[in-house]
Amino acid sequence: MKNNGSSKTVNARQVAILMFVSIIATKLILMPGLISSISGQDAFISYAITSAVCFLSVVLCVYIAKNSTHKSFYDLLKQVFSTAGAKFILFLFFLFFISKVTLIDYQIESFLNEVLYENLNWIIFVIPFYIVFAFIAFKGPRAIGRTVEIIFPIAVAVLLLAVFSSIGNIDFNNLLPMGANGAKSIINGAITGFGMSGEFLFILIFIENLSEKTKITPRVLTYSAIAFAIIVVFLVVFAAIFGEIGRFIQDALTKLTHFSPIIRQNTQVDGIIIIGWIPIVILESAINLYAAAWCLKNIFNIKHFAICVITGILITFAIKLIPSLSVYQMLSIIPNFYAILNLTLEIIIPILLVIYIAVKKSNKGGVKNEQQLQAK
Amino acid sequence: MSNNSKQNKTKEQLENNKKDTNKTKQNSQTKQSSTQQQNIEFESAPQVQKGSLSGLTKIKTHEHNHPRFRRNQIYYYIMLACLAVLVFLFLPESLVKENQGELVAVITSVGLDREKESNDYLITCQVISPDTSGQNQQKVALVSEKGKTITDSLTNLSLKLGKTIGFEHCSVIAIGESLTGEDLMPIIDHFYREGTISLNAIMVNVKGTAVDLIKQTSELNNLSSGSIQNNFNFNKDFFGSSKISTLGTFFNEYFKKGSSCIIAEINMNNKQTKAEPAESLNSGEASGDAKGEKTSQENNSGGDGGGGGGAGGEQLQDVSIVQNNGESIIYKNGRALVRANKDINQGFNFFDNRVRFGVIQVDNVNDEELDNATVTFTVENSTVTLKPIVDFENNKFILKSKIKIWGEISEVTQDKQTKRITKSYKDLLTDKLKEKMKEKIINDVDLAVQFCKINEVDALNFEDLFYKNKNKEYEKLKRKLSINDDFLNYVDVDATVEVNHQN
């Protein structure tokens, strides 16, 4: 039962699916309403901008994952930024991933309270939720990779169900006039979207677990592009259905099926959607918890990975104990705090690492050429 | 000599090759034997059992790449996923003693009124208690409570029921006549925010009190309370019906340029009828047989209201009858402004692309085989294309509306006797009749547009249409003409109609 958090591997297909799931899992719950409250009907344009930036970050991360000759991401960071610098950056990553776990935790609680339960006691909700995703995180990347292969078709089915059950209510006039709220609101919406992104950074943590590095680039980039495109399309559908009231919608995925002028009987598909979507969110939490625990392990040189996972869970639990802290308060700090943190972790650090790897690669090429010339 | 040396070399090569092949054979044999041994070890390992956790915890001692092991792993992860879902969904319910049904009162429809005397809000809810006996029946109860504010009323209602009020399953919001002229937005907004009422709950105005409507329709819905909407005879696809507005539509239209919304109206007419003896109510006779010609609403609407005095010893009682006459109320800025009758609603529906079916009746038709006839044309499908044009020359906003309908003649009534039963109705749809139908539709459309202009209410959201589709031109002409609230005065509707036989 010993697990050091790095012994298991995932193949290119699993990483690609993981990438897809992690990008999409939490974007369809709170984010559409949040961006709509800033950009109005232009929310999809805002997220298209965010997607372009995030996709660039994915490209950088994939380049690092593919071309890094180091044992792990930590080794790479150490070589570039020294040990102290590497530990500081890992601490930033830890903050990022643990806050993602907490945010997902709050989101899923409000999601459940909205649809399935009335005044759900958070402790009762937290116990099974934490047990499941902590166990998956403890089992490591291989367990995560295998689980995502099972859950992936369910996610796709749920998404299709949500969109197609409400497709009759789409009115594309609700998207007009484009850009009516001005460029500033579009940019602000894009910044908010960017603040909520970055789940794909797990690929850097998984560097030591990748078994098929040569196949990673096309698959991961394709799946990521599809995921970002789906979110943009979802936002188009969201705005076309909800129109002006999109800004008030807190859980887009389930509310999408509510807004129907068709006279309904007793049928409600939101329950089915939430049941199908919960495993995706649990897995997303597991990925983030694994990444946070991995950061802890390397920062403090902890041998037992279980200790890191339990510490991560306890920190999340401790945040939950803060009175009157809700998902909306957490979301209110997104534009300020997360956007800066995300910019550092998603763009600046990957760019520096890519430059380092590229320079090292060209140096190696130069040395080889010199050796060949000398041999001749 | 050279040939001999070559032959020797080739012999040596052949021998080497043979040795290599023997080596590879030996290697493969040893590999096979080792895998067989592993298989034997794997199969004979007593601690590994398929699907058992004890086996899975000891997986490290076995070959990870063995196909059987991998298969077991897949089963394991499938089980894990299922377990995760089950635990997550059922553990909270099993840990909490009371189930959700005991904590929450499920509201399926809500009525809003204002009391005349105290000016308090009166909220009436139809509450269902899900029955788990398997008979597919739900107990329906009606609860009313009043308060100075909506929050006050809802709190009182919650105290009365001893449960939290759950509006998630609420499908109807009935608004009583007493709320006419009051801004509904704060009330409805409160229901949506606090009560999390569903956005597809339909909104209905009541000519009378919302309490009566909820009471009467509840009696119709003892078997299936969720189908309360159906008792209003609404059909979103039907020309004859007034437009159905949901809570979501109300919110959306409120924020549009015209800030107007059409909400259907239901009449609650009081009618005095002879009170039936108590015995006959319980005698098991179907009331529908006795009043066969009445609508289903009428059949079920008895029993309410106070009894009146009767002449000749017969007791009379007031009975409320639920009637959908195709009327609607037009709201502007959240306030009920004006009532639209059935004909005007029909005109409104010709601008709605979702309305596809209906009946068009044309009177005084004279043709080869028709003499002062009344022709009923059943519309099987229809489309409408709206094209906004900003005319800077004439300073007008022109809305080109192209209506296409497909259908067939379903009824012809006239004094002149013909043997038309032998003829197809298709032959009767002549150009002359088509022209007559076009006139009728254009007349309905004009009537609806004039109604909007006279009452200064943009019920068809013309301004929003120009704002969204011709934004720059709209803003330019609006600035040029310095239009504020009188946008409709600058709108001209140019409707063209095409009538086609269904086939």
What do you see in this structure?
- The complex is a heterodimer of chains A (376) and B (503).
- With 376 residues, chain A is mainly α.
- Chain A has one domain: Amino acid/polyamine transporter I (Up-down Bundle), CATH 1.20.1740.10.
- Chain A contains 14 helices and no strands.
- In chain A, helix 5 (122-139) packs antiparallel against helix 12 (305-320).
- Chain B has 503 residues and is of the alpha/beta class.
- Chain B folds into 3 domains: 2-95, no CATH class; 103-323, no CATH class; 342-501, Nutrient germinant receptor protein C, domain 3 (GMP Synthetase, Chain A, domain 3, 2-Layer Sandwich), CATH 3.30.300.210.
- Helices cover 37% and strands 27% of the residues of chain B.
- In chain B, strands 1, 2, 3, 4, 5, 6, 7, 8, 9, 10, 11 and 12 form a 12-stranded mixed sheet that branches. Chain B has a 4-stranded mixed sheet with strand order 13-14-15-16, sandwiched between helices.
- In chain B, helix 12 crosses helix 13 (431-455) and helix 14 (462-469) crosses helix 15.
- The longest helix of chain B has 43 residues, at 2-44.
- Chain B is globular.
Quickly give the CATH architecture of chain A: Up-down Bundle
- How large a portion of the residues of chain B is in β-strands, by DSSP E? 25-35%
Provide a count of the helices of chain A: 14
CATH superfamily of chain A: Amino acid/polyamine transporter I
What is the CATH T-level topology of chain A? Amino acid/polyamine transporter I
Low-confidence segments of chain B: 30-56, 277-312
Number of domains of chain B: 3
For the terminal residues of chain A, how far apart are their CA atoms? 55 Å
Q: List segments of chain A where confidence is low: pLDDT < 50 over at least 5 consecutive residues.
A: 1-7
**3D shape of chain B:** globular
Q: Quick one: CATH class of chain A?
A: Mainly Alpha
Whole-number total of structural domains of chain A? 1
Structural class of chain B: alpha/beta
H/E element sequence of chain A: HHHHHHHHHHHHHH
Global geometry of chain A: globular
The helix content of chain A is over 70%
DSSP summary, beta strand count of chain A? 0
> Which value, in Å, is the CA radius of gyration of chain B?
37 Å
Largest inter-chain contact set: A-B, 46 and 51 residues
Approximately how much helix is present in the residues of chain B? 25-40%
Main beta-sheet strand count, sense and barrel state of chain A:
none
